[in-house]
Design brief:
The protein is an alpha/beta fold. It has one domain: 3-Layer(aba) Sandwich (Rossmann fold). Helices cover 41% and strands 18% of the residues. The protein is built from 5 helices and 6 strands. The strands form 2 sheets. It has a 4-stranded parallel β-sheet with strand order 4-3-5-6, sandwiched between helices. Helix 3 links the parallel strand 5 and strand 6. Helix 1 packs across helix 4. The chain is globular, with a radius of gyration of 16 Å. The chain binds FE2/S2 (inorganic) cluster. The site of FE2/S2 (inorganic) cluster (FES) has 13 residues, from strand 5 and helix 3. The site of FE2/S2 (inorganic) cluster has 13 residues, from strand 5 and helix 3.
């Protein structure tokens, strides 16, 4: 399916064939400071393995995350985005994580509609002690993205930049 100059299949896989051999998925992880940020630190101190291509962006609560923030991450070339919020019922701002869940669900629908694929975005609820789960989510998302291939928006963006220069 051709959309906006990108060669993207319905499930988010690129039609350009296999990903380049040297390519490693780049993930952005929006992490609530009350849970995931601490879980990430704990994972590090326990030397739990997760892929290096993850950019962790701490935030006070996932309820502060706007849809634009997630879309911007994809526009800037992230191959996948994770949103880590507190367990349901444990958000320090009462319903911030529920709001984030609604927003990520809406964006997942949009990603399917534009052919990028909803599997590139995932929201996970955890506590500050769930370092094992944090590392496992990172590994699983990286494998999912590896199967989907690079974010086609990155190539489109680079092409536009080249055209402008
Ligand atoms: Fe963690 Fe709201 S305080 S998701």
């Amino acid at each position: 399916m051709m959309r906006g100059g990108m060669d993207v299949l319905r499930n988010g896989e690129t039609a350009a064939g296999p990903a380049p051999a040297a390519w490693e998925p780049t993930l952005v992880a929006f992490c609530c400071g009350y849970c995931a940020d601490a879980a990430a630190a704990l994972a590090g101190s326990r030397r739990l393995q997760y892929p290096a291509g993850v950019r962790i962006l701490p935030m006070p609560c996932t309820g502060k995350l706007e849809m634009e923030n997630i879309l911007e991450a994809f526009e800037k070339g992230a191959d996948g985005v994770l949103v880590f919020g507190c367990l349901e019922g444990d958000c320090h701002f009462v319903e911030g994580n529920l709001r984030a869940r609604r927003r990520t669900d809406r964006i997942r629908e949009m990603l399917d509609e534009i052919g990028l694929g909803s599997r590139r975005l995932r929201m996970v609820n955890l506590s500050d002690s769930m370092a094992v789960e944090f590392a496992r989510e990172m590994r699983e998302m990286t494998e999912t993205i590896r199967r989907l291939g690079p974010n086609p928006l990155r190539d489109a963006e680079q092409g536009e930049s080249r055209g402008r220069s």
